[in-house]
Each structure stands twice: as structure tokens, then as C-alpha cells.
Amino acid sequence: MPKSTYKIAVIQLNLNDVAENNLKKCLSWVRDAASQGAEVISLPELYSSHYFCQSEDVANFAFAEPLYSTSFTAFSALSKELGVVIIVPFFEKRMAGIYHNSAYIIDADGSEAGLYRKMHIPDDPHFYEKFYFTPGDLGFKAFPTQKGKIGTLICWDQWYPEAARLTALQGAEVLFYPTAIGWHPLEKEEYGENQHGAWMNVMKGHAVANGIYVAAANRIGLEQYLPDTAGIQFWGSSFIAGPQGEILAQASHDKEEILIAEVDLEIQENVRQNWPFFRDRRIDAFGDITKRAID
After folding, report:
1. What are the angstrom distances between the C-alpha of 288 and each of 171, 293, 294?
2. Does Transferase show up as a keyword for this record (predicted)?
3. Number of domains in the chain
4. Which run of H or of E encompasses 274?
5. Domain presence at residue 42
6. Which DSSP symbol is given to 159?
7. Is 118 a catalytic residue?
């Protein structure tokens, strides 16, 4: 029988290194998280490389890997050894000309519990993801694992309440957001506080509206690999929130850290009994949500 409580972790790291070193680093940090009692562990978005989407350069497609190759092999073996669930976000080469921003959900026995492909793809200054990533085609999913039923979205998906809702409605107990988000250094003084606040607030809102645990795993560090640019200062601040939006654990802006919190399904049930948002949804009146605009 599934347990009524289990521990989740998000790992916040500087990933501005080559793929081989990032893999070794992440394997080590996952091992550390498991040693601290974590049972479901998430890495940040695109764990194996620096954030290459700061430019549009076909050479960066070399960072991609086919399904079930390097990342899956390494983390599947580690999951089986440690008996933990691992969320592994990676750059997927599906076929020539089709690439995805994806995440494996690897179960505690090393098997694949699921695959998620990022659905919402941004195109902002130095976040040129549309050049690289085909939008996901697997939809929004909740994945049963040996530890609990979890949902995984990725970064830009954070801003869309529909994505969180559709995942929660499938029974997800926790919604993980592997992330790579930061400040443009020249804009930080003017806009940084509001940008970071909006990022946290929207995900805390998803937790409240759905009575669900939310866990965001971000990277840290200044990644300035392009000449004559200020780069991106990744703001860290990874966090885990409870089903009323309460912050259970939060990381710094600039340190590598492991955050661990307990998922308590009895608390979640109590919150949903007292705030029955799912019960009161007017699904008969929501048809227009599938339109681009209501003119």
C-alpha cells in the first residue's frame, strides 16, 4: 500500500560545465539527497549543460541525446541502487530536426515511470528556446511511482494555470517544476524583485488552487559564455510549497543546496475537504478556455 507520507527533494546547482562533469556532479548530489531521506528527487532543467538557449546556434544541437541513452542509463542505475524516484530533465533528440526539452520520471526500481516533453516554449531575449525545442506532444500527465503519484512540468510551463490544473486533476500529489530561470544582469536592479516575486507567486497560486504540493528546482550562477553580452544570472531560490501555498523549504539565490520536505497526503486531503475547489468547479461553463481569445 502507498504510504501516507514521503519525502521529496529538489537540488539546486551551478551547471555551467561540460556534460560529463555535470552528469558526475548530479549523480553525486542525488546520492546525497537520498542519504538525507529523500524518496523523490528532482534535478534542474537541462541538467547536462550550461543554458545554451542564450543564442540561436545549430552547434548547440550537439548537446541533445536520444531517448534511453546516457542520462537514462546512468540515473536508472542510480534509482535502482538507492530505491528512489528521480526526475531527470534533458535535451532530447527525437529524430533529425525534432528535438524536445524533456524529463524522465525514473521509478525506484530503475524503470521508466514516464516521460514529459515541455509543452510551453518561450522565445525571449537570451531565452531562445523556440529555435531548439519542438513543443511537447505527450500532454499533461500524472505518473504513478512506487513512492507517490507525481506530475512534472518544466520551467515556462510554470506560468500556465491550465497545465497545473490538468495535471492535478489526474491525481498528482506533487507538481515538480525543473527550471532554468534568471535575471538579465543589466535589468536586475529595476525589474529583478518583481520578476522573482511573480515567479514564486504564480506557483504558490497553483499549489493553493489545486490543493497540491509544488516543488521548483532552479539552477544558480552567472552563465556568460557569449562575447559582448551580460549573460544570465540564474536566481536559484528553489522552493517547496504545501497545498495552501505555504513555503516548506526555500534555497538561497546563490548557493548549491538540497531542499527536502515531507508530503503528507492526510494534510492534503484535509485541505481539499475544507477548500473544495475541485468540487465547485463550473465545468459546464469552461468551454471557452480552449479558444485563443474570446472576441
Report:
1. 24, 8, 7
2. yes
3. 1
4. helix 265-274
5. yes
6. G
7. yes
Grid coordinates representing 128 are 531562445
Domain that holds residue 121: 5-290
Q: Which CATH number goes with the domain that contains 122?
A: 3.60.110.10
pLDDT tens profile 145-198:
999 999 999 999 999 999 999 999 999 999 999 999 999 999 999 999 999 999
What does pTM read for this prediction? Answer: 0.97
Mean pLDDT of the chain: 97
Nearest CA among 278, 234, 217, 171 for reference residue 26? 217
Among the listed residues 26, 39, 45, 53, the single catalytic one is 45
- The C-alpha cell 551551478 sits at 14
Q: Cell 524503470: give the residue.
A: 111
pLDDT classification of 3: cutoffs 50, 70, 90: confident
CA distances 37 to 8, 81, 82, 213, 252, Å, are 9, 14, 11, 18, 21
Query: 53, 129, 155, 173: which is the annotated catalytic residue?
Result: 155
Phi-psi region of 19 (alpha: psi -120 to 50; beta: other; left: phi over 0): alpha
- Residue 45 falls in the annotated catalytic set: yes
Residue 295 resides in a domain: no
E-strand ranges in the chain read 5-12, 40-42, 85-95, 98-106, 112-117, 142-144, 149-152, 174-178, 182-183, 213-217, 220-223, 232-235, 239-241, 247-250, 257-264
Residue 171's Cα: distance from chain center in Å?
A: 18
Q: Determine contact, residues 175/220, Cβ cutoff 8 Å.
A: no
Our answer to whether residue 7 is catalytic in this structure is no
As a whole number of angstroms, the longest Cα–Cα distance in the chain is 57
Alpha carbons 120 and 22: distance in angstroms, whole number = 25
Which one of 7, 53, 92, 118 is the catalytic residue?
A: 118
